[in-house]
């Protein structure tokens, strides 16, 4: 079986396993998506470990104190809120694949405290500033602000904390670094010997690329990884090395997409039935495409409007959403059912998105 087929089947089996294991708790499910209507912590504790490749989620901000968002006004202090979010961090680390990623939206007021907490469990790689520009011709609420009444700079932007699982044992707390050292040591090879076998010499140290990989400074290409696997197996490695897609955290950007840590995706314009914290599909799809492979599982434990789930389907991923408010679960269900009615270009059983689905109404085809 080709590698890509093996990965596809692996992810599909993992998704079906979650669906069967948590069947009694499911609000709605189809072959690509699952919705749970429950407190997110209740469901997260039931999800098998190392199931999700990406956690893309938008928790209550706490600092905004919005009455129309569940739990946004539930905490009497910042510390109480951070303690609650740490319960999620513990479950996220267990559920996330070792080469997975997290995007967590938050307010500028809480970003520093959240980043400090998350750094106990994850390598925080970036804190992204989403500037939320208005579309041409749409003034939005920024123009209505009475600037003279302000006592500090108005928080027009939002933050997105981007991180990966951290495993102690090397300089950068890299999962792959630890795995490579473990397998190399099991074969009684020095870093210099493995370097010679794969021809990955460094310009400064004799350990070359192997030393850098094991410290977590950088990662091998797929070609280099295949050489590593072949070299270790030739030296008697008992168990085969995992597939590249199960080891290396994907990160794919280019000059045609947002590649800096300042993002300019326009916010979602008001419409009847809009979720108060709805995020634009284009931005969510950018997160998903950049950090996952097709068929991976994308998890949103504060699903809200369901835009993360729709974005995952548009990019041919499996997806799981958890939402405590039944009203929004029903709204997500309708969006997913609308998606299922779209014309398809049958690719591995996935619907190929041809409609916009930005709102909860039936999509307008391109």
From TrEMBL:
SUPFAM superfamilies: S-adenosyl-L-methionine-dependent methyltransferases (SSF53335). The keyword Lipoprotein does not apply. Its EC number is 2.1.1.-. One of its GO terms (biological process) is methylation. Residues 53-334 form the DNA methylase N-4/N-6 domain. GO terms for molecular function: DNA binding; N-methyltransferase activity. Keywords: Methyltransferase, Transferase. It is an enzyme of class 2 (transferase). It holds the Pfam family N6_N4_Mtase. InterPro entries: Cro/C1-type_HTH (IPR001387), DNA_methylase_N4/N6 (IPR002941), DNA_methylase_N6_adenine_CS (IPR002052), Lambda_DNA-bd_dom_sf (IPR010982), RM_Methyltransferase (IPR001091), SAM-dependent_MTases_sf (IPR029063). Belongs to the N(4)/N(6)-methyltransferase family. This is Methyltransferase. It comes from Bacteroides cellulosilyticus.
